[in-house]
Amino acid sequence: MSNVEESIDVAVPVRTAYNQWTQFEEFPRFMEGVERIDQRGDTHLHWVVSIAGKTTEWDAEITEQHPDHRIAWKSTDGKPNAGVVTFHQLTPDTTRIMVQMDYDTEGVVETVGDALGFAKRRLTGDLGRFKELIEGRGVESGAWRGEVENAADQGHIPTGTTATGAGASTEESSGGGPSTKAILGGAAAVAAGVAAAAALKGRSGGESETGGSSNVEESIDVDVPVRTAYDQWTQFEQFPQFMEGVERIQQLDDKRLHWVVSVAGKTTEWDAEITEQHPDHRIAWRSIDGKPNAGVVTFHQLTPDTTRIMVQMDYDPEGIVETVGDKLGFAKRRLTGDLQRFKELIEGRGVASGAWRGEIENASD
Hints:
The protein has 7 helices and 14 strands. By secondary structure, it is of the alpha+beta class.
């Protein structure tokens, strides 16, 4: 099983970016190899794609759609593939689009192409062309604003998918896994597993400051039900049990946390606000003073007893020690370690030590 992921920031409002993406029949304008897409009703698409000089076709179903947030789909025949694209407001006029793919390689040509990173480069190219299209136009060519609820589990991975192991970076795939033919054929930008949501890096007042920021993301599969994993994660004051350097977290109320963290031998403190929380799905936060950082953690059911947790964080490295550490990948390794310790904690315990099941809506939406 292989996976590939990519993101891009486009200089248009989130509504504009999302609306343009719903114009599926226009995908050939920016997706390499896609000859034609026919929309057959609100939730069904027929793909015609050129792959290595051959034309292949398949039908796909939109399994989940939430305006300005998320579109998920899976193939219903032909080449197996499934995916999610998510949209995240960075500023009123800037949107991050995130895509990730999970697929199986078939044959020597595809295997070699995968090893050489062809799928990654094609996905990057598709997103680059989408950016040029929507920024050049400035407005969407159309829109579909309907809601499609995931019949399987309101945003969880379709039944029949298999986990790809700790640290994998996929959310959704159909049984058997997507073929690289789907990817190299130009379905790259849409055959996805999960895009763990883009963290909105903001200071007090919600202002995003993308200049100089760094981004890190990681995922892990834990052998507990999604509700158990999510419930344990809501126990913020227990984060020091698995987060390296976190000395103390004090929950001030349902939405505010006070962090005390050791960074490069120094103790630093800040307050953070939970900006969005949906049980068994998503928790997003941002700092409101002190060290600028923000992030999102999402939870995805792989099987009734296996959950994929995906984390993405944006932050500003400060000072030479943090900047050098950032270049050497220290933040990535620390996040990997934190998730591994969370896995050991919750699998060893088997049940959550507590839970908060409230909803917090993103005020910017």
